[in-house]
Amino acid sequence: MIVTIKNYSRFQHFKDRRPPWIKLYRELLDDRQWHDLPPECAKLLVECWLLASEQHVAGIITGDIEDIAFRLHRTAAEVWPLLQAVALHGFIDISSADDIDVISERYQDDAPETETEKKQTRRKRRVYPSEFEVVWKVHSRGTKRTAHEEWRRAVGEVITQEELVKALRGYVGTLKPDFQGVHLSRYIRDERWEEGVGEVPGVLKRNILTSAPMKVMS
User: Fold this and answer.
1) Does the CA dihedral 18-19-21-23 come out positive or negative?
2) Domains in the chain, number
3) How far is CA 40 from the centre of its chain?
């Protein structure tokens, strides 16, 4: 499992692993997403910031959930739902180990890459279909690989490419600075294009239809 800290390089400038301290910005007090976090999630996020500073690649925590839980002195059953909640608020990304294949071996030993190693790294880079790239360009939020998997499952089965792009552009147009939207993978998986607008935002249209009061025929 890989836990990626969002914008880690922005507020952590240490290049060496295991720095004696990390920075915590005062502007966090004005971050609504931070205040929306339950207390246990906020505490876990700070612990993740500290744990990420020890990693071979700064800002990226790797290992099994049991390993991460052990470092945080908690059980895996406690840590996993908290990590998911923090991810939903946009502070971290959670993905599988395959998503980090493009990271070079130079981060492991601080040794310079040879030209052969650079070519091998480039060959590992994942190439996505142009149709998916169109969708990703509209709302590039979350893990790209996971979003691609949901896109492959949905397009052609529950929605067309054109309908998805149109719905996604409409969704992005409703977002505000204090909320950048759900991850693209979740938008597709939950079929968020069916969400209602206007008087009942966020309610699925199919739920509106099924819950509407029946007219009594005279």
Assistant:
1) negative
2) 2
3) 19
| 99 and 135 together in one domain | no
- Per-residue pLDDT of 100-159, as tens digits, reads 443 334 334 444 445 555 555 444 567 888 889 999 999 988 888 899 999 999 998 899
How many CA within 13 A on the CB side of residue 18? 0
CA-CA distances (angstroms) from residue 209 to 31, 82, 126, 212? Answer: 37, 34, 42, 5
Residue 39 CA to residue 61 CA, distance in Å, equals 22
Do residue 13 and residue 98 come from a single domain? yes
Task: Please check whether residue 2 is in contact with residue 60, taking contact to mean a CB–CB distance below 8 angstroms.
Answer: yes
**Residue numbers of the domain that contains 175:** 130-200
Contact between 103 and 55 (Cβ < 8 Å): no
Q: Is residue 84 domain-shared with residue 21, that is, in the same domain?
A: yes
User: How many angstroms from the chain centroid is the CA of residue 163?
Assistant: 23
Decide if 188 is inside a domain: yes
User: pLDDT for 159-204, tens place per residue?
Assistant: 999 999 999 998 888 888 777 788 999 999 999 888 754 333 343 4
